[in-house]
Design goal:
- The chain is mainly alpha-helical.
- The protein folds into 2 domains: 54 residues, Arc Repressor Mutant, subunit A (Orthogonal Bundle); 141 residues, Tetracycline Repressor, domain 2.
- Helix 4 packs parallel to helix 7 and helix 5 runs antiparallel to helix 9.
- The longest helix is centred in the N-terminal third of the chain and has 27 residues.
- The protein starts with a helix and ends in a 23-residue tail after the last helix.
- Keywords: DNA-binding, Transcription, Transcription regulation.
- It holds the Pfam family TetR_N.
- This is AcrR family transcriptional regulator.
């Protein structure tokens, strides 16, 4: 009976190493990094990795669960702000900062994982919450009336390009990009725009 605790401790240690390695790999290389590369980074065999995490989706949702919860909290805070425009701006700024800090976060957020029920509930709550943040900012007359949720996708895709640079430059570039775009989102003196592209978040949920 004595060896059992040691085996359990070893299993916990391997699991923690795999999660840390996956978090680092996803943050720098995106979600398509090979599972074998994650196993090597963690110093474990591929069989051990799959024993702890039977699928890539299982690993991804475990790694990004906390980040997704933080994103949902950002949206909740925006909804609780009595100033709809300030709440909208704050949500955009914080989510873009999270994106710069972790390159894998955006793809994880935009990907549907139907088997991860709790993860999906949190993601859907964040999406619906942001839609309400947008509605409130428009109703207050502060957000331009033609702002579309597709514009959020455009913003995240643009910010993702900025985030791919060196960390210090990426952080500064992201802040400036977001500041530019938030000014363009203001309702005051908003010039007409071309039609919004078919870039709803739902279209990005299927992993390619």
């Amino acid at each position: 009976m004595e060896p059992a605790p040691a085996l359990r401790a070893d299993a916990r240690h391997n699991r923690a190493r795999i999660l840390e390695a996956a978090r680092e790999a996803f943050a720098t290389r995106g979600l398509d990094v090979p599972m074998a590369a994650i196993a090597r980074r963690a110093g474990v065999g591929v069989a051990t990795l799959y024993r702890r995490f039977p699928s890539r989706e299982t690993l991804i949702t475990e790694v990004f669960g906390d980040e997704l919860a933080a994103c949902a909290s950002v949206v909740d805070e925006a909804l609780a702000d009595p100033d709809p425009w300030r709440g909208f701006c704050s949500a955009i700024e914080k989510v873009c900062a999270m994106q710069v800090a972790d390159l894998g976060f955006t793809e994880a957020f935009l990907t549907a994982f139907p088997d991860a029920i709790d993860y999906e509930r949190t993601r859907v709550r964040a999406e619906r919450g942001f839609a309400e943040v947008v509605r409130r900012a428009k109703a207050a007359g502060r957000l331009r009336a033609d702002f579309d949720l597709a514009d959020l996708t455009l913003l995240l895709k643009a910010n993702c390009g900025v985030a791919a640079g060196a960390r210090e430059a990426a952080e500064a570039g992201s802040r400036r990009l977001v500041a530019y775009l938030l000014q363009s989102f203001r309702a005051e003196h908003a010039a007409p725009l071309p039609p919004a592209p078919p870039l709803t978040l739902a279209l990005l949920h299927e992993r390619r």
